[in-house]
Amino acid sequence: MPFHCMLEVIEKLLVLQDRDRRLSRLRMELERIPAERREAQAMADAAKAALEQARLHVKTLETERKRLELEVEAKNELIQRYATQQFQTRKNEEFRALGHEIELNKKLKFDLENQILDIMEKIEAAQKQVETANKAAAEAKKMADDRIAQLNQREANLKKDLDAVSADRAGLAAGVDAAILHRYERLLKARGDNVIVGIDHGVCGGCHMRISRQTVVDCRAAKEIVTCLNCGRILYYSPEMDVSVAD
Fold first, then answer.
1. What pLDDT was estimated at residue 5?
2. What is the DSSP letter of 223?
3. How much is the average pLDDT of 110-120?
4. Burial of 235 (0-12, 13-18, 19+ CB in 10 A)
5. Which of 11, 56, 108, 114 is the most buried (most CB within 10 A)?
6. How does the average pLDDT of the chain come out, rounded?
7. DSSP labels, 131-185
8. Which residues pair with residue 198 across a beta bridge?
9. Alpha carbon distance 2, 52 (integer Å)
């Protein structure tokens, strides 16, 4: 007659292990949330920075336009002054010299005015970029705000679940013999949340090393706690397991 009973303590430890695995998953999810929140905020910040850069570009162009306009104004005043001096002089040489200065400054003024036209075209294009960047920044902020709100809600839910599972786990742990619980928790710390493992196919479910025929027999007998001689994990057998490899 095959053995198929499982030690009560193993059943308790399997349930406890399930809770520890759930706790581990919950903690991992919680640990990821701050990074996801920073990532969402970073996208919004990048769009905002692009908007500020676009605005700064317009401001720089406007400053350059004003500088050029002041130069044009200065050239106009200079041309007017030379024209007045030319009208007042009676010396031909001085008249010609002033005429030369007038023509030179008119040319410089013409060049400045062309530069202003170029700047105005650039300003118009830059203002369109600001509009595009402003729309992108608004959309990015909304997406970030929505994502962060979802993450905050998810974080609150995970913390609630963590508290509930922790409380459940504490109650389950209280029902396990203290010495066995200590042994289990020591293995949990050393091996992670894969401490109570099956012997399907005649191998340890933790380290996957072949176990001896006697170990299989002891597991199926379910008279005492049996451990893997290789990794120290606690072994168990259930009827659906195929242990023919080791038989």
1. 59
2. S
3. 98
4. buried
5. 108
6. 94
7. HHHHHHHHHHHHHHHHHHHHHHHHHHHHHHHHHHHHHHHHHHHHTS-HHHHHHHH
8. 236
9. 76
Q: Which residue has the tokens 């053995």?
A: 3
pLDDT at 6: 76
Q: Where are the alpha helices (DSSP H) in the chain?
A: 8-88, 92-174, 178-191, 213-221
Residue 210 has what DSSP assignment? B
Nearest CA to 209 out of 183, 189, 235, 188 is that of 235
Alpha-carbon gap, residue 247 to 241, rounded angstroms: 13
Cβ neighbourhood burial of 187 (10 Å; 0-12, 13-18, 19+): buried
**11-35 pLDDT per residue, tens:** 999 999 999 999 999 999 999 999 9
Nearest residue to 126 via CA among 60, 58, 189:
58
For residues 111 and 220, give the distance between their C-alpha atoms in angstroms, rounded to a whole number: 99
- Tokens in use for 60? 């720089």
